[in-house]
Amino acid sequence: MFENSFNNIDKAMRNDEGLASELDYAEQTSWLLFLKYLDDLESERQDEAALEGRDYTAILDPDYRWGVWASPNSAKGELDHNKAKSGKFQYFRH
């Protein structure tokens, strides 16, 4: 299940200039996986709060949620390539 995801990440990272091996982008891969985990955790906590009738204050600002910068959807529910962010570290600059 996860093997395909890791292979896709590896393929995308290998295309960046200056990266010779998996060790060169292990840190970036770990960071992306952490951000995805954090977003999933936020969604789970938000759902739990809604089911229990509680308010929930998100840890992440809406602009930094996975679905906004990593995989934004169009009105049809498909990946919107025009809105998807790319490039190193541009997601975290203010």
Structural class comes to mainly alpha
Shape annotation: elongated
- Percentage of residues in DSSP E strands: under 5%
Low-confidence stretches: 87-94
Radius of gyration: 16 Å
Tell me the span between the first and last alpha carbons.
35 Å
Q: Roughly what is the average pLDDT, rounded to an integer?
A: 75
Secondary structure layout:
Blueprint: H1 2-14, H2 22-52, H3 66-69
Keywords summarizing the entry:
94 residues; mainly alpha; Ferritin
Describe this structure in words.
The chain has 94 residues and is an all-alpha fold. The protein has one domain (2-92): N6 adenine-specific DNA methyltransferase, N-terminal domain (Ferritin), CATH 1.20.1260.30. The protein has 3 helices and no strands.
In short:
The protein has 94 residues and is mostly helical. The chain has helices spanning 2-14, 22-52, 66-69.
